[in-house]
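Minutes, project check-in

Agenda point 3 was the complex the collaborators sent over. CS summarized: two entities, 331 residues total, and the question is how they sit relative to each other. Sequences were read into the notes so everyone works from the same version.
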Amino acid sequence: MSLKPIKKKGTTRRGFIKNIAAGAGGIALANFLHGALAPGQNGPVAAAATKSNYEKYVLAPEIKKYQGLEVFELKGKDARGYDWAVQMAPVEAINLMNEAGAVNADLAKAYIGEPDNVKDIGTEIEISMGADVEVYKIDSASVMYIPKGVPCRQRVLKRPAKASFALTLTLPPKYIEPAKPKK
Amino acid sequence: MAKNEYGKFIVRDAVVDMSAMGTMGGSMNSPFVAGGPELMKAIEGARPNFALYYVKRAGMFMEPPHYHPNDEYLMFISSDPHDMKNLGAVVQIAYGEEWEKVEFSTSALVYFPKDLQHCPIHVKKLDRPFLFGHFWPMGEESNFMPGK
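CS then shared the predicted structure for the full assembly.
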């Protein structure tokens, strides 16, 4: 199998995201980092008709319940051994989850409406951030970044009129390419 | 005067129309939610490389077989807030140069270790739209490499 790189193509989902997110420049990849650390904690969920060597890569979440609402959660480690996590929660469950305070990792959040109108999340969410409790409100599909250690709380202000969702990603520390050894 | 230290970290109306990607995505997907360049400029810490949207129809994803020099995860998550386990769809993913197929119908995070070829991805059956997106934990560059 040839691993010879070719010209980047901007037509993939990841490539497109990279392009629209290119303001601060990309993080270089360290080829010596080997992704040998097993991600996920709950094992595979694939149901192949025949045994596959790759079923182990389809990872099952933990499903948490909040008064009839369910939340998808899965944690793993990156190639360096740092923790990451993915959580998908119905917006309606946010107040029930009662998650508040500072986290010892950078977080990213995204809010999305229904399939036919992703922009409309059908409610208003109050976001408070920082030690001085700065308060912001969102009422449409949004993305938010919360730096490590910054207290953050989100509160749904009215019952959502539709099934919207909140994605929370726990991000490993920024990757910094090590200096190349001098010859 | 109220402080506004963190306002730069919130992007409202963060919806990107797939038509900006030409034929990519076709009619299978909703527009997606992602941070833009201004958010990324404001960030000094970890880079969130992800997107979030819905797969709305059965069919074949447009991506050809390929691999990356870094780990990638794809989210396949139920859109039923009362049943986040049942995906409401049957998905088949081809792994490796032999296109070995793995099929599932429950919510999952699908892992593609670095240098492992993957795709095509086939949504064989769809009872209801599901949440979908990619997540690169380390936020690296895309580095799309064509497979066989």
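Noted in discussion: The helical segments of chain A are 13-20, 94-97.
Follow-up: revisit at the next meeting once the mutant set is ready.
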